[in-house]
Amino acid sequence: MNPLLKRLQPYPFERLRQLFAGIPPNPALRPISLGIGEPKHATPAFIAQALGAAASQSPSGLSVYPATAGDLTLRTACAAWLHRRYKLQLDPATQLLPVNGSREALFALVQTVVDPGAGGGASKPVVICPNPFYQIYEGAALLAGAEPHYVAADPARNFAQDWDSVPEAVWARTQLAFVCSPGNPTGAVMPLAQWDRLFALSDSHGFVIASDECYSEIYFREEPPLGALEAAAKLGRTGFKNLMAFTSLSKRSNVPGMRSGFVAGDAALIKQFLLYRTYHGSAMSPVIQAASIAAWGDEAHVERNRCLYRDKFASVTPILAAVMDVALPDAGFYLWADVGCSDTEFARELFALYNVTVLPGSFLARAVEGHNPGAQRIRMALVAETSECVEAAQRIAQFVTSRARLS
Questions:
Q1: Model confidence at 17: pLDDT above 70
Q2: What are phi and psi of 348, to 5 degrees?
């Protein structure tokens, strides 16, 4: 058995299950979960229709093996979306690959990039991770034989990553850096100045930047979130050297079950990533490709989806802001709240008394020098219908108020 498997930590939702073990929730209230970031809005009918039509056709349906690189029609549709969204011109044949959801691709890229034997000796290569973070980053690093280095986000600066806090000796061993913008769980968008600093560090030390942008189309400001490739173009960087951006249809189009997205950026990295994926068996079904082409080609359903989230957050945020430290994020569908007490105790008591599930923030972060940046925070995924999220917020407000009276 691969000994590196022993280094993996339990997934946050397994830890949540253990936290709630043996605790009966209030039977007088229907259960409401804000714990898992799984989109609940309806899948647009035209995407389902495209899926069904492709499945019934042969040989373009299920009777052929798909190419790992995907059909050029799909890659062209993805490149066209990048042009509409970011005003970028990418070559669909060399700078873009379809992937089976951003999660598997983020994991796979680390296995492609990391050289565990680089440098020799006892020093392991480093993968930079935000903190708090999406746990796939850490798991991918560990299973590639690398050492994660956690860069805490600063709440006082809109959860900005402090790249200058990373020691020079760590940067010298870094082979890949993860960025999540808009961030999970904070919803923060990385500004151009931080991208400029990270690009300079990449140029100096030669590491790859993997930008996870799966929440880019759910935002609350007038200006859409800045993307990694867009930032590079604004800074006059051509060719996207050592830069890979990942996006997905899951949140944008409410199709997490399709497992469809794409990665775009450095053509040299794309070539090596394709080689890895050819052996790994990562080809996308032609049926999913056909439905993905339809989804990437339409923005009307994305705008409607964004409006649903905007209305929902406008209804829920004031209810919670009246009793706890929480504010509308830049983007994404999470509220990241400071509860001012043990996040695990808060989540457990809320579940027991009000039958509402939230995720403790400490489950989404790692302690560095004795401090876990997710401690005393909770993540709430506002993915259900507005009425259900409002009811959950009202229960949470009642819970916080009752706890305050008792303290």
A1: yes
A2: -70, -45
Q: Classify residue 282 as left (phi > 0), alpha (psi -120 to 50) or beta.
A: alpha
Q: Is 60 helix (H, G, I), strand (E, B) or coil?
A: coil
Q: How many Å apart are CA 267 and CA 102, to the nearest integer?
A: 18
In whole angstroms, give the CA distance from residue 135 to residue 149. Answer: 13
Q: What whole-number distance in Å separates Cα of residue 94 and Cα of residue 80? A: 14
Residue whose C-alpha is closest to residue 377's, from 354, 347, 406:
347
Q: Starting at the earlier edge strand, list the strands of the sheet with 261-265.
A: 96-99, 261-265, 243-248, 208-212, 174-180, 126-131, 147-154, 160-161
pLDDT of residue 122: 66
Nearest-angstrom CA–CA distance, 283 and 68: 4
Please name each of the domains of the chain with its CATH number: 3-42+301-406 (3.90.1150.10), 46-298 (3.40.640.10)
Mean pLDDT of 179-204: 97
Phi and psi dihedrals of 248, rounded to 5? Answer: -150, 155
Evaluate if residue 121 carries a pLDDT over 70. no
The pLDDT assigned to 59 comes to 72
CA-to-CA distance for 118 and 135, rounded, in angstroms? Answer: 24
- DSSP-assigned letter for residue 322: T
pLDDT value, residue 99: 98
Total Cβ atoms within 10 A of residue 402? 13
Q: What is the DSSP letter of 88?
A: -
Q: Which helix (H) or strand (E) holds 302?
A: helix 300-321
CA atoms within 13 A on the CB side of 156: 1
* Rounded Cα gap, residues 338 and 324, in angstroms: 7
> Exposed (0-12), middle (13-18) or buried (19+): which is 154, by Cβ within 10 Å?
middle
